[in-house]
Amino acid sequence: MENLKNYKFGVFYYNPSDPRLLVPKTRSSIHGYTLNFAKPISSVILGIFIFPAVALLYLIFRS
Questions:
Q1: Pairing of strands 33-35, 7-8
Q2: 36: nearest Cα among 46, 28, 50
Q3: Among 55, 56, 34, which Cα is nearest to 45's?
Q4: Closest CA to 12 of 29, 31, 37
Q5: What one-character-per-residue DSSP string does 11-48 give?
Q6: What is the pLDDT of residues 3-40, one digit of tens each?
Q7: What is the per-residue burial (b if ≥16 Cβ within 10 Å, else e) of 42-53?
C-alpha cells in the first residue's frame, strides 16, 4: 500500500520521487488511477479537463 503521507488533503497524490504520472488509487472502493501532482504535466492534464467545463458553464449562464 502506498504511503498515505504522499496524499495532500487525503485526495491529491504528491510524491516528487515517484517517476509515475498515473498512480493506482489505493484508498478508493472504485479502482482507477490518480495523477501525481508533483509532475508539472499533471496540472496541464487537469486543466484540459476543467477548462472546457468552465467555459461551457460560462456560455450557458452568461446574461
A1: unpaired
A2: 46
A3: 34
A4: 37
A5: TEE--TT---SEEE-SS-SS--EEEBTTSHHHHHHHHH
A6: 788 989 888 899 999 999 999 887 667 788 999 999 99
A7: beeeeeeeeeee
